[in-house]
Every structure is written in structure tokens, then in C-alpha cells.
Amino acid sequence: MLVWWDRSGNGNVPTSLLMTDDSDTAADQAATVLLLAPEVGSTAGVLSAAALDGGRQPDRAVAVTVTGTAESWLDGWERRGGPSTAITCVDVDGATRSAASESDRTTPGAEIERVTDPAALEELGRTVSDVLQRADDEGESVALFVHTLDDLLAHVDEATAFKFVYTLGEVVRRVDGVAYFHLDPDAHDPETVETFSVVCDRVVELDRFEASRSPK
Amino acid sequence: MAAARHLVVVGGADASTTDALADALRDEFAVRTAYSQADLLASLDEEVDVVLVDPRLSDFEASRLRERLDGRGLDCQVGVLTDERVETATDARTRAALADAFVTVSPGSDDDAWRTAVSRLATRARYRKRLEEYYDVADEYAALVVDTTGDEAAATNTERDDDAPDRTDGATDEAEDSTVEAERERLADLLDRLRADLADAYDDLDDESLFDVAIDSWQGPPPPWHGLDAPDTDRSDDECP
Fold first, then answer.
1. Residue B128 and residue A205: Cα distance in Å, rounded?
2. Contacts with A164 from chain B: Cβ below 8 Å
3. Do B84 and B106 contact (CB within 8 A), yes or no?
4. What is the DSSP code string of B182-227?
5. Contact at 8 Å (CB) between B210 and A171?
6. What band does B217 get if pLDDT is binned at 50, 70 and 90?
7. How far apart, in whole angstroms, are the C-alpha atoms of residue B132 and residue B143?
8. Cα–Cα dist B73/B132, whole Å
9. For B184-196, what is each residue's pLDDT tens digit?
């Protein structure tokens, strides 16, 4: 089950359950969404598609993968996502993995950008921002998926990750897109989860069943 | 978030040139002047947004300025007063040590050029300071929400275990709840104002420097002049690169 939470002056208040038309409105109005779901591993692409389930399909999906690979994200996305959506993957630490996997260098159906250092959030931010700006220049609507904040928090402190989320969210807002930042709530203390809830417009919770649901 | 005038510290070796620069900036900024490194370091506090420093300042050591800024956690932006056409070894060393310095302003620039350069640095400082404040308040808000949620859960359990709650304790709890709720509303309002101020500052930033400003520089790649060769310490200050 997906649950939308709307940030109000009095904190996060649940407003509706997804799978209804109301949720489309909630998704369309939010520029940044905190996607609370169990650790998803190789099913990150499935999770991304599930987050859009029933909502507006973007012209371009932009996926940031850190521990997971661009290929595994694509595999999950193709099982659940819209076939007409163009894809760009920003693969962090991809240089290391591409040296170990020849097939990682050529991924059909997607543009791949590489960022080598997961702690260098300036470089990651600039790279993603360039991708979003190019898409906007082409008149494409975009959805950004960051998999995951868990991985970034393993390399930088909470304050740095928070500033990155805010700034990247503003970039997305300026191109009328939506950014989904995945966080495993079981991997962090409640205060950290709440802090990232503050910086995002909406919070979506997915249970383990929805996050790993089999293809339609 | 009142739109207070940005505070600039101008540290120059020559008093007349320093004062002229300060006068040119005073229409738009609050300005402090310093004519030695000791004065410059003494002028730094959390109110300062921009530091303009001339490497020819008496007894100047860039590393000491950097240590002072980092040691006190000051989020001001640093501009180095050099002339790129005749940059000396001291200038280059200064730029290398002051890693978040971004705009190099040249002596001899007209007043509008000074103000434009300082405005750019001030906008960067404003975004960085507000973002830091935004995180601090969000962290405080989150702690309050989590504490409140935990207290409510504990209170619910207590009520279930107690058929006849004490009336005095109940009144005290209500007063505490009211205080907590007031604090929560105060923090929520502050977060809303910070978001609005950040959005304004964001609109004035150039895309190129956005993430450099947002993220602490020492956790990322080298500064924009990373291609600059390491200064030659044996070279005379009078030499051009």
C-alpha cells in the first residue's frame, strides 16, 4: 500500500491513499517526494515505477543509482514503467563497476552518465542538474529518482545530504519536474527520517509488498 | 528573515585605496575596514557575509584566515583583491589557501564592478547561511516531532493502565502540551520563512556555482581554479605567472 503524507504547518498529516484519482493531484503538486520504503536493492527500478503508479508519466525518467547499478534499475523499470519514457541514468561509482562489467558500458535504451565519487555531491548535483536542464530545453517533462539517500548518507553527513536534497529539489522545481528521494526508514533513526520529511513536499510510504510487487 | 544589508569586511594594505573601496560599497552594504591581518581577523564574526582581502595586507597569511573561518564555522565568502593580468606568487598562494574564494576582483575596477562582484559573493553567502539555518531548524523540528510522538504513545499506555488519573497531573500535562505545540508552530513558521528566503537567494545564484555553494567545499572536488599550478614558493612576488 502507498500512503501519501502532506506537509502542513502542523507537521506531516496523511491526506489520502494512493491508487485513487486524488493521489494524482497530490503527486502533480509536489516537486519533491520522500519515498519511504524498505531497502530495495535490485528492485529500485520497480520501486520508481511503483511511485508513479496511477500518476502522470514523465517524458524522461532520470535515475541516480549509487550502490545499485544503472542496468539493474533499468531492468526493474522496464518491467513496470511506461514504454514511451526516455531514460537517463546517472550512475555513481560507475567507473569502478564498468571496469568489472563490460556490459555496463553499453546499455541499450538509456543514456548513461558517470560520476565516480559518491562523496562529491557537487559533481553529482551538477551532472544531474545538466541532465534536467537539457530535458527541459527539449520540452520534456521529467521525473528524478535518487536511489538511495541511504547510500549517500553512508558517504556524507546528514547536514550535507540535506543541503543536497534541498538544492537538487529546487533545480527540479524550476523545470516543473518531480524528484523522488528513496530512504529506508528502518536503516535510520526516526529523527533522521523526520528531518528529510521536512525538506520534501510530500512523503510516500511503500510497504515491502508494494516495493517488490511482481510485474503487471 | 528581514532583508538586512549584507556586511562586508575590506582588508587592504593601502589605507586610501581600502577606504575608497569601502566608500564605493557603502551605498549597498554595511562595511568594516581592516589595514592589517590582526584587524582583519578581529573583524570576523557570524554577521560577516563577505571578506575582500588584499594579499599584500601587513603580515597576511592566507592559511590563518582560512583557519579562522573554518575554526569558527563562519559561512562568509572570500574575494581576493588581485589583478589577474599580473597575478603574483602571493596572489596565487592566497587563492589556493582560500578554497571557497570565488570572484577575483581587480584594483582599478569601477564602482559598479565592485558592487556587482560583492553582490555575487553576498548572494552566495546568503544562500549558504540560510541553508545551514534551514537544516538546523529542520533538525530541531524533527527532534520535537519525534519526542512528542514518543510522549503521546507513552501517555496513551499510561492512561490505559490507570483508571483514575490525577487531576493535577492532567492539568500539568495540558500545559506542557500547549507549550510544545506553540514551539512546534514557531519552528514550522520559521521553516516556512527560511524556505521563502532560500528560494529568493536561489533565483539570484548562477547555475554553475549552485552546488559549490550548497555543499561544504572540503567534501567535494577542488575549487574552480583547480587547474592552477601549485604556486612556486621560490618565485618573487614581483614576477608574473
1. 31
2. 211, 214-215
3. yes
4. HHHHHHHHHHHHHHHHHHHHHHHS-GGGHHHHHS-GGGSS--TTTT
5. yes
6. low
7. 17
8. 11
9. 999 999 999 999 9
Q: Which of B100, B223, B219 is nearest to A117 (CA)?
A: B219
Cβ within 8 Å, pair B132-A159: yes
**Three cell numbers written together for A178:** 518531480
For residue B196, which residues of chain A lie inside 8 Å, CB to CB?
Answer: none
What distance in Å separates the CA atoms of residue A147 and residue A45, rounded to the nearest whole number?
Answer: 9
Measured distance CA(A151)–CA(A164) in Å, rounded: 13
Residue B164's pLDDT is: 52
pTM: 0.79
| Closest CA–CA distance from residue B135 to any residue of chain A (Å) | 6
Local structure of A113: helix, strand or coil:
strand
CB contact under 8 A, B146 and A199: no
- Asked if A210 and A41 count as a contact pair (C-beta separation under 8 A), the reply is no
Mean pLDDT calculated for residue range B205-230 = 58
Cα angle, residue B239 at apex, residues B233 and B241 outer, rounded to 5°: 80
Question: Which residues does A171 contact at the CB level (< 8 Å), separation at least 6?
Answer: A125, A128, A129, A132, A133, B210
- Separation CA B80–CA B225 (nearest Å): 13
Task: Give me B163's grid cell.
Answer: 483508571
Q: Does ipTM exceed 0.85?
A: no
Cβ-Cβ contacts under 8 Å, B189 against chain A: 9
pLDDT recorded at residue B140: 97
| Residue-by-residue pLDDT tens, chain A, 216 positions | 444 444 433 333 333 223 223 444 445 568 999 999 887 766 777 777 777 766 678 899 999 998 888 888 888 887 765 667 899 999 997 555 544 444 444 556 788 998 988 888 999 999 999 999 999 999 999 999 998 899 999 999 999 999 999 999 999 999 999 999 999 999 999 999 999 999 999 998 887 555 544 333
**Residue B103 Cα distances to B13, B119, B209, B222, angstroms:** 19, 11, 11, 15
Task: For an interface test with B, give the residue of A131, A163, A174 to mutate (most B CBs within 10 A).
Answer: A163
